[in-house]
Design brief:
Strand content: under 5%
Number of helices: 9
Number of domains: 1
Radius of gyration: 23 Å
Order of helices and strands: HHEEEHHHHHEEEHH
Structural class: mainly alpha
Strand order of the largest sheet: 1-4
Shape: globular
């Protein structure tokens, strides 16, 4: 008999950290929190609606089972706790993402990630259109900074930030989406490759791994096709937001499997493990956390650059 029920496990190891992150508060600027709340709500809806049929099907075909007496009741084939886990994992990844200020697209006049409304001085009409006091924007002012926010002779911009040093200033062009035809094809092609690889693996001991890749590939491909160039330009922030939640979720999943809360069916698993955790479970947490983090980063990118796009 497992030492904890599924509900107790969620309360201790998932809801607890979510509550701590909520209590600590986000690192995102107040002016961007409305977009953040809307983005998290969208991610919760998409996570539950997209995961539910897939999850229930895999349970129905016996991909994994639950320990006796560990679940309260089932809705469709999945325990009610399974739906809670999906929602809590989405919240955990989202709140961890917001522990640091989000990067901002490099709009004209957008100085740094401290620019709360996400579109910089351009929205306020104080961008590069004119130099303060009628000065020449092509020449540095008394402090060495160019009036148009460009680079001075020291190689830094008007904020004193060297290009490429601050993740907040990215190379993706928000007016065009930063994604040319080549980027769309490469991003979509990568997602298609993941999907096809998963579909080809849907048999025997690679079934569970294939199901994860075939299910996650289309979403990742869509994200990469729409905003792959932008995601690459803020890759350090994305990696920071994805890494710790994945490691933590893998660690607690290893505990749950060891306690017998759930068991992966051997005939549908490769049998490969990392520190005792099936590679399928690690892949699942990597794919799902990527989907949430990339989705939120792109959500901000789209909605916070929309006023600038409309000017074009």
């Amino acid at each position: 008999m497992p030492p904890l029920t599924y509900l107790e496990f969620l309360a201790a190891f998932v809801a607890g950290p979510v509550a701590v992150l909520l209590a600590v508060g986000p690192g995102i600027d107040r002016g961007r929190r409305r977009t953040a709340v809307a983005g998290v709500a969208v991610m919760l809806f998409l996570a539950l609606s997209y995961t539910t049929p897939w999850d229930n099907y895999l349970i129905a075909v016996g991909t994994w089972t639950y320990g006796e007496g560990t679940v309260l009741f089932r809705v469709w084939n999945a325990p009610i706790e399974e739906y809670a886990f999906v929602a809590l994992q989405t919240l955990l990844a989202s709140l961890w993402l917001y522990r640091r200020p989000l990067p901002l697209p490099a709009l004209p006049g957008a100085a740094s990630e401290g620019d709360a409304d996400g579109v910089g001085a351009r929205r306020a009409g104080t961008g590069t259109d004119a130099a303060p006091g009628g000065g020449d924007p092509a020449h540095p002012g008394p402090d060495g900074a160019r009036a148009d926010g460009g680079l001075d002779h020291s190689g830094t911009d008007a904020t004193g930030i060297a290009p490429g040093v601050d993740d907040a200033r990215t190379d993706a062009d928000p007016a065009t989406g930063g994604q040319g035809i080549r980027g769309v094809l490469l991003g979509g092609g990568a997602g298609l490759a993941v999907t096809v690889a998963g579909a080809l693996a849907l048999s025997g001991p690679t079934y569970y791994l294939g199901a994860i890749l075939a299910w996650g590939g289309p979403v990742l491909g869509l994200q990469w096709a729409v905003g792959g160039t932008y995601l690459l330009s803020v890759r350090r922030h994305v990696l920071w937001a994805v890494g710790p939640p994945v490691v933590y979720l893998c660690a607690i999943d290893r505990l749950a499997i060891g306690w017998g809360l759930w068991t992966i069916e051997p005939v549908r698993s490769t049998g490969l493990t990392v520190a005792g955790l099936p590679v399928e479970e690690a892949t699942f947490f990597l794919v799902t956390t990527l989907m949430v983090v990339q989705g939120l980063v792109l959500f901000h990118w789209v909605f916070e650059t929309r006023p600038y796009r409309s000017e074009r």
